[in-house]
Amino acid sequence: MESFRILGISTGEPTMEAFLSAAGEKVSAGLLVRLVDVPAEVRAESAFETCPVDKIEELGKKFYPLTTQLHGAVGRAWVQHLVDLGPEEIQRRIRLHREAWLALPAVAAVRGAATGQVRSVLNRFALVAAALRMAIDAALLPWTVEDTDLGVADCLVRWASGRKGRLDLAGEMVSVVEQIRGILVANIHGRFIHLQLNDETGELEYCGSDESKRDTLGFVKADRILIEPSAWRNLLCAGHDPKKTAEHLKAENLLHHDPGSLQHQSKVLRGGSVQNGRFYALEMRILEDAVGTGPKEDSR
Hints:
Distance between the termini: 67 Å
Number of strands: 7
Radius of gyration: 26 Å
Shape: elongated
Strand content: 5-15%
């Protein structure tokens, strides 16, 4: 049975991840490697931005009917060109052009720090760059190789920006850190008990009416978020490896821990009495940035 693979391009406004998540689907890191989201960049002098805003509607009425009449000519010539080249020559040229694009200094710098998953995505961008180079060689496109190389590299940069600059991380780790941050942001005031030290007595006390909170995930104390181990495993790291996630956050200086452990022992208030407990203790700055800048002093 014959089979084939195609590179699909969609201009949907929501990302594929947002679209599937809204439908209740769990989006795996592997899927995000196969369906790459590149944010659009609207700039002056591009497409409709070359005409005044009040003229767009009038231009659209002329533009869209033309697309039903003028389309496919270059596509047919491109297919004929590929047929004339033959499979072996196509593969040779693709390899040549992909290697040339991947060797560009900016691309090579990204590739050198990338994981296997990220390299897979880079190879997809390289395939687009190679196809454009081949079409230019065939005199089917009016652009220069330099222009198309730069355009594909710009798309790569915009995709990479969605990974918070962490191209050295596997997609699963990027996903779980964002999952944790999202859960914390949504629940930091509702499902965490906030504690403080009384300046006069030095005693630990509740902030406001936090004593009456139920179904909590942990505590907020000074600049740390203390997460109950069960909540860490079953909610914040749901669908991911809790230990590997903690080890990653430890390496990023976002997890405060005791020697030889991924957890931290801290005094908290339970039922009005001071008790010792063990928690996954995250630095508060995880809510702002997934990349650590160094450990802070113990604030017990």
